[in-house]
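Page 47, continued from p. 46.
Same chain as before, 729 aa.
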Amino acid sequence: MKRYLETLFCAAVLCLPCLAAPEQEELPAFLDRSKPAEERAADIVRRLTVDEKVMLMMFESPEVERLGIPAYNWWNEALHGVARNGNATVYPMPIGMAASFDDQLLREVFSSVSDEAVIKYRIARQEGRGAGWYEGLSFWTPNINIFRDPRWGRGMETYGEDPYLTSVMGGAVVDGLQGAVTDSTIKTLACAKHFAVHSGPESSRHSFDAVVSDRDLFETYLPAFKHLVTENKVEQVMFAYNRFQGVPCGASERLLREILVDSWGYKGIILSDCWAVDDFFEEGCHGYSEDAASAASASVKAGADLECGTAFRHLTEALERGLVTEDVLDKSLIKLFSARIRMGDLDEGIRQQDIPDSLLCGREHAAQALRMARETMTLLMNKNGVLPLAKDAKVALVGPNADACEMLWGNYNGFPVDTVTFLDAMRESCPALVYHQGCGLVMDLNADPESGQDDLYRVSSKAVDDVLEAVRDCDVVVFAGGISPSLEGEEMNVEIPGFAGGDRTSIELPQVQRELIKAIHDAGKKVVLVNFSGSAIGLVPETENCDAILQAWYPGQEGGKAVTDVLYGRYNPSGKLPLTFYKSVDQLPDFENYDMAGHTYRYFRGEPLFRFGYGQSYTTFRFGKLRLRRHKAVIKIRNTGTVDGEEVVQLYVRNPLDTDGPSLTLRGFKRVSVPAGKTVKVEFPLSWRTFEWWSRENNRMESVSGKYEILVGNSSDLRDLKVRRYRFI
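Result:
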């Protein structure tokens, strides 16, 4: 971009007859870097034509040559690293990073992600680019929807099923991306999405109407959005595809105007999910608007500032028909240009020059990706201490995910310079490793595609014989199983048993893997299952047929090394489940039922397979007596084992008198290191936020006086928690 101050100034003067001659003209406000961003933006907006205004409210914002304004594309992704734009460091998927319960590390991760974003943007502008898709500094992340049902394919993009955990982790993402925010500068823009009440199914999101009680809305679906808006000052909020109480989210006055703007005081950009405004009027979708012009005007009047799509082209027609007024567009455009000015997009050479290009895909970020991947590892089962593996153990690696790069990368991903697969790392740790793929993710490798369905999705006797022959002399078989982002994700063309359109119809481990694991177990081998997935898997048979289960999520470019470090004891696992692992779909309500009853650990009354907050270690921790002192919960944790470890101490609150409310709900957590044989003290403040509860009298969330129970431990299982009563006044 070679537009220096003089060029911009001359262009503005030549095109504006109201201005005096150049030698007498004061610098136009939009060129004066000493002025506030909003004042500069307002000066730009008053110089635009109606046609220019309309086009600039779309994600592919065109150049305004006469004012020296470059083109800009608002669409960029950074779900777990800068995405879809060449090489970038690829961190674990968000659901895995949620398992770390480490918001400080997550904040550091996304500070590094924004460093890489600035570097890539700077290089693009230097090369005369920077206005293409995925080249800008406005990122549409984090996804802070509640992962209410494990069948939802996009759940891996979220930070789990708990509103508090999602708030804290989502807030860390925003802080890391946006950096030190001022009225004149911001590093990059983060975006809270998808607002609101959205978590599948993928197949009906363009027509679905989410109807929930006010309690579920404000207690479960909105807290993370409120936190990111009021505490972290997120700069963008993206509305969802679905309807909410009969109205598309992008036209909902209640969501966008009453709650987001009026109640929470949000002043940032409101944007559409991609082509969501088209759903207002397209046949087979919401049937809310008669045409594109009325749809666009309905969204803008409700509060939308920016569209990912093409319906806003019809705002010109909407203006002519009197459906919307130009001053509404002006308010949106001032916000959009203020953000671009603060990001440095309109001013030459003011991007952070202190971020060296060497950080992009460098060793420092790779080490950080490894640290985060290690912290995501969640040990679910370890019978008789089969893990960590003995250094001299004869080990075989079997399974469809052993040598899968793309699985490690997840979705909405960038492309790392180097990826350490599980097979790569295991061979480095065990030179005599025996490897056999064994089967595909869902199909037998030997199956004839023309054969019946049963033959395709069940393991063949030949596959079993081949694997058993390969592992005959081995002590332990590590099975790299699970699923893949090729099977679960956003609106996918997948129709096979157990999967549909990106979602899942069953949460079981695919049958072909299940049968092969059982065959190996029945042959007398110890089996360690490393389960890769972005969602909960029903592993009831595997708890019988395996000696250990490690949940590895989709762990990013360093994931293979992270898993191997855990298996061989070089890293003591410390991850905790950010969602409930149910036994089967028989324990779940209907997928389209958005009522919280029966969903997540907070409202599920049955006995799951593994509970929220659960995760084992290679050492043991003993929790002392819980004490409540001066508005603090205080507890001591002793490492009673022989190796150093990290524990995630969790604080829950319950209101025994509220029989309609959650059985318990997370209100604090701290990740602490405890050396072997040592004791550490952990304190949690007990503030009005701790006792924010649903008020029946006032029909809202507020600090409610009453008798509560404070519970502290290392999972949401009541058997793992120390309990004290507390009266909040």
